[in-house]
């Protein structure tokens, strides 16, 4: 219960009410002391009136009057004359004098607290004004023991009453908080838990109905969040289904196009001039279609596998890429240079690094081939204390503005006509899997530079 909002509120309410009652307790006890002393003065004045009515009171009767008044003697001042009206032996010297006619509130509180914390019994002199203007002043001497006992009794009753009031107030507030705050909050939490168990179930979406403004705002915010999340989940599900269908279609279409690609070799051997003129365009179209299908299948994977780190001989990897792309270029005048020093190694996944550089080199080769001019692609390596940097540099036509704005966005970042932009998107994802990055260094009429950053980490395998 102590860990609940209502339980802690109950405890805090009890504590704060008790603190408020304690603040009331101090002036209350001070007031009780003042009333007690005034009561003794009034009793002493009544006892003195009996003597004034009959000057021949017996000693026993005088002692009884003093005992009833709770004082040792009574002094009246009337007509500037100080008169000892009633008297009896005082057991000890007078320890202190209190004039009730001139005491301030702070002085009365101080005297009351001092009396509570002083257990030693004293004889004190108390001075006050007689009631009904029966003289100039009245003065009595009395013991402090009965006064202190009465103050303690009164204080205990005040504290007990304060405790009862605190508990009752806390219980009432506890019930009110549970009804007004805790129950609606639990309702919101219940909606969140129900929605988390089945986010596709629209019945789990909250309907705002709280009367408290803050809770109403929280419910409306939760409603908005649940609505948007449900729509996003439905959209994601539809996209996943669409992606699965596209992957299947791309797979089958790739097989069909690959078969068609085999027949184009015979078409190129035709003696018909028109066929020989149109055959290269047909071959290029089929090749682009196959490339798009392969890229779609590669990007459509749920996620790339985590890289398996090992020491990679980068010079050999670049040699393989250069040989493969040189064969793919056929008659295109594109030179691929391996400027990585022999024996250079870095830490990474060999297959994924091959795919990263292959995509960059292939994009550069295709961009240069589209111009019909001679070109050069160079792959180099540099390193610093924290990372390896693979640079792919070409002297092609540069990237158009649209391609730069959507450089790593699938199906939007293609730099050439018919390109899908999947190559750069896949390469960037593989680089991030290594904890690194793929970035465009520069581009323009003089060529383009891509930079692959692979962090060294701690260098362990």
Automatic annotation (TrEMBL):
It catalyses: ATP + protein L-histidine = ADP + protein N-phospho-L-histidine. The chain crosses the membrane at residues 6-26, 158-181. The keyword Protein biosynthesis does not apply. Keywords: ATP-binding, Coiled coil, Kinase, Membrane, Nucleotide-binding, Phosphoprotein, Transferase, Transmembrane, Transmembrane helix, Two-component regulatory system. It comes from the Bacteria. Its EC number is 2.7.13.3. Residues 215-242 form a coiled coil. SMART domains: HATPase_c, HisKA. The keyword Ribosomal protein does not apply. InterPro entries: HATPase_C_sf, HATPase_dom, His_kinase_dom, HisK_dim/P_dom, HisK_dim/P_sf, Sig_transdc_His_kin-like_C. Gene3D superfamilies: 1.10.287.130, Histidine kinase-like ATPase, C-terminal domain. GO terms for molecular function: ATP binding; phosphorelay sensor kinase activity. CDD domains: HATPase. Pfam families: HATPase_c, HisKA. SUPFAM superfamilies: ATPase domain of HSP90 chaperone/DNA topoisomerase II/histidine kinase, Homodimeric domain of signal transducing histidine kinase. Residues 248-458 form the Histidine kinase domain. This is histidine kinase. The lineage of its organism: Bacteria, Pseudomonadati, Pseudomonadota, Alphaproteobacteria, Rhodobacterales.
């Amino acid at each position: 219960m102590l860990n609940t909002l209502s339980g802690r509120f109950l405890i805090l309410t009890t504590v704060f009410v008790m603190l408020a009652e304690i603040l009331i307790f101090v002036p209350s006890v001070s007031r009780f002391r003042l009333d007690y002393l005034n009561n003794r003065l009034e009793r002493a004045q009544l006892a003195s009136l009996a003597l004034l009515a009959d000057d021949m009171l017996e000693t026993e009767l005088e002692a009884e009057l003093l005992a009833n008044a709770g004082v040792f003697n009574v002094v009246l001042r009337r007509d500037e004359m100080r008169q000892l009206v009633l008297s009896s032996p005082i057991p000890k010297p007078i320890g202190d004098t209190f004039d009730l006619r001139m005491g301030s509130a702070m002085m009365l509180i101080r005297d009351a607290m001092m009396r509570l914390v002083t257990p030693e019994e004293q004889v004190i002199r108390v001075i006050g004004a007689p009631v009904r203007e029966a003289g100039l002043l009245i003065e009595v001497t009395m013991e402090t023991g009965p006064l202190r006992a009465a103050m303690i009794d009164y204080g205990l009753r005040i504290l007990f009453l304060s405790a009862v009031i605190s508990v009752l107030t806390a219980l009432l507030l506890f019930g009110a908080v549970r009804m007004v705050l805790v129950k609606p909050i639990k309702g919101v939490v219940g909606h969140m838990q129900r929605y988390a168990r089945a986010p596709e179930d629209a019945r789990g979406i909250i309907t705002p109905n709280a009367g408290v403004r803050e809770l109403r705002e929280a419910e409306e915010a939760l409603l908005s969040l649940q609505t948007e999340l449900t729509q996003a989940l439905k959209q994601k599900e539809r996209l996943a289904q669409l992606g699965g269908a596209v992957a299947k279609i791309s797979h089958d279409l790739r097989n069909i196009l690959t078969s068609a690609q085999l027949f184009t070799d015979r078409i190129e051997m035709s003696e018909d001039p028109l066929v020989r003129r149109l055959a290269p365009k047909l071959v290029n179209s089929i090749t682009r279609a196959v490339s798009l299908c392969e890229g779609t299948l590669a990007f459509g994977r749920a996620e790339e596998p985590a890289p398996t780190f090992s020491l990679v001989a980068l010079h050999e990897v670049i040699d393989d890429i250069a040989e493969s792309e040189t064969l793919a270029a056929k008659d295109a005048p594109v030179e691929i240079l391996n400027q990585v020093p022999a024996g250079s190694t870095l830490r990474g996944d060999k297959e994924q690094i091959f795919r990263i550089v292959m995509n960059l080199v292939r994009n550069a080769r295709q961009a240069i081939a589209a111009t019909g001019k001679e070109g050069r692609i160079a792959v180099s390596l540099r390193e610093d204390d924290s990372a390896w940097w693979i640079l792919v540099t070409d002297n092609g036509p540069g990237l158009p503005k649209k391609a730069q704005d959507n450089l790593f966005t699938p199906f939007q970042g293609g730099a050439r006509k018919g390109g899908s932009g999947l190559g750069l998107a896949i390469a960037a994802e593989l680089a991030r899997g290594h904890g690194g990055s793929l970035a465009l260094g520069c581009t323009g009429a003089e060529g383009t530079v891509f930079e692959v950053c692979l962090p060294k980490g701690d260098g362990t395998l």
